[in-house]
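[09:14] KT: can someone run the structure on this one? pasting the chain below
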Amino acid sequence: MEGRYHAVLATVLHGRGGAALAELEGLIAGLERLSGASRRLLLRARMLRAWVLIDEGRPAEAEVEVEAVLRALTRGMYVTDVCELELSALVCMGDVLCALDRHEEAETIARGHLPRAEGHLATGLHVLLLHSLSGQGRHAEALAESGRGCPESSPADAGAYELATAVALHGLGRHDEAREEAQRALTACERYLHPGHHRVGEIRALLALMAPA
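[09:31] RB: done, structure tokens below
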């Protein structure tokens, strides 16, 4: 099961989440019949499904999925590394809320949990904070937060921080700087991610908005 999960994860990270959805749902169904250590893998698989649903434009379904994960974590203290899994689920929930235009709730999650996050989870919450602020039209605050610097990231986070900064700059009408930041984001994505990754599409859409008439 572990091998199947990582194979699906690789497909999703390469921007082909829609193609992997059926395999992911089959994996989840199989894990639900198991117990013990497989419960942790099940929660990870369900979170991955939620992120795929967001990318597929199905945020309401993603919300149901991640709420189920958070309930399971509340009940299931038998799961190891509960804090890490909980923070991952909270980042996912924040992404769901942004996709549903519930940016204030996403901001609450980001601010409430950043102090206890480290590494890539701190990165995820920091980027979530930037998106949630820009989603409320608070671009100056988002840019100020981006100036605090980004924690360590992984290849899966490639371009995310730069994209959030570019969105804030664009919202402030600083288009030349926004284009430069978006181009940096695109370069980072092209280095690590599949051309079909949703983040690449978001960056290209932003660059198109700022293209000279």
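[09:33] KT: thanks! Residues 73 and 82 are 7 Å apart (CA to CA).
[09:34] RB: yep, looked fine to me
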